[in-house]
Amino acid sequence: MNINKPKRQNLKTWAELEAIRKKIAENASKNIHPVVADEIFNFIKLCGVRGNLRKKPWYKVVELFAMGQVENLPRVKFPILSGSSEEESAVPWEYFGRDWYWWVNLLASSYGWTVDEIAKLDIDDAIGLYQETEVADQMEKEWEHRLSELAYEYVPATKKSKYVPLPRPKWMQMKKENYKPKKPKKIKILRSMMPQGFILNLDEEEQDANTSPTTP
Predict the structure, then answer these.
(1) In the chain, N or C terminus with fewer CB closer than 10 Å?
(2) Is the four-CA dihedral 139, 144, 146, 151 of positive or negative sign?
(3) 93, part of any domain
(4) SS (H, E, C) 59-85
(5) Burial 57-77 (b: 16+ CB within 10 A, else e)
(6) C-alpha 53: how far from its chain's center?
(7) Quick check: is 95 in a domain?
(8) What's the pTM?
(9) What is the pLDDT of residues 26-67, one digit of tens each?
């Protein structure tokens, strides 16, 4: 039975994929490999792949996992995703699956949409709207700051007050050409888990056989 390719998912499933991705990274760092393997299968299935993946060669599973991640990446270089290169630590109230409820709370409170409407969004639409809510919130704070006495600093040398603008987040200060996506986190694989001997790429061999000249 042929295995279909991973597909791009809507926001609700994407949030589930994000939770699984975090779980994979967490368990890989602790060398809990059986959990990592199970979650990789779960990730691929959530990407819409059907069939018995456990009967497939390991390299095919890895290939499908990589394809699923790439297919479900944001396709727009949003500045808000490039604001910090530092690794974010989990908050004390973090739990598995919180990503979805975070998105529902954000978009429902900002736009008054239902859970079903939010679930059908593409991740690019969700991130774009999230950035716009952050921009609107920053503009409102800057307006309120301008009306406050705390926004003006007295300069003794000139005997005048100088306006001190409210600092903006780093991602709002970056120039467009400086947007840089975060580097993917590298995960070490134990030598004992790697295949032994020569590794043959059957896809390349099949392609070479199909393109090789035939004898008349």
Answers:
(1) C
(2) negative
(3) yes
(4) HHHHHHHHHHHHHCCCCCCCHHHHCCC
(5) eeeebebbbebbbeebeeeee
(6) 24
(7) yes
(8) 0.71
(9) 999 998 988 999 999 999 999 999 988 888 898 999 999 999
